[in-house]
């Protein structure tokens, strides 16, 4: 599947990746479709709220610390210069709960000049200049 097709498909937002996706399980599903291995498998379905997601991320020491080892263990390698199809953790403004937007780390896919992220309204793009790259991984075929 081309990344263009993946980021354009309709997805329902659901914390925990059951009956829909959140930003991190959405990236995990992309990885699964690309590689046949799901880096989100260990935590998919183990939470159903922002608080539950935060607890998992906090226990790991951060989002990059949670997903990085899972990706590397499945054949992804860390890179400094993102390109289309790479998976990343970026820091950007988010508004998941309908409150005031706040900066947060989120999982994202590099899609040309944009980061594609999944939020309550579905997949969307964030310009590179509006997001700070925290960490990025590329599938090592």
Percent strand equals 25-35%
Q: Compute the gyration radius: what is it? A: 14 Å
H/E element sequence: HHHHEEEEEE
Mean pLDDT: 91
Q: What is the makeup of the main sheet? A: 6 strands, antiparallel
Number of strands: 6
Helix percentage: 25-40%
Low-confidence spans = none
Give the helix tally.
4
| Whole-number total of structural domains | 1
What is the terminal separation in angstroms? Answer: 15 Å
Which class best fits the helix and strand makeup? Answer: alpha+beta
Shape annotation? globular
Name the strands of the widest sheet in spatial order: 1-6-2-3-4-5
Give a brief outline of the structure:
With 141 residues, the chain is of the alpha+beta class. 29% of the residues lie in helices and 30% in strands. The protein has helices at 3-8, 23-35, 50-60, 63-73, and strands at 76-79, 87-94, 102-111, 114-119, 122-127, 132-139.
Could you describe the 3D structure shown?
The chain is α+β, with helices and mostly antiparallel strands and 141 residues long. The chain has helices at 3-8, 23-35, 50-60, 63-73; strands at 76-79, 87-94, 102-111, 114-119, 122-127, 132-139. Residues 9-138 form the DUF6950 domain. This is DUF6950 domain-containing protein.
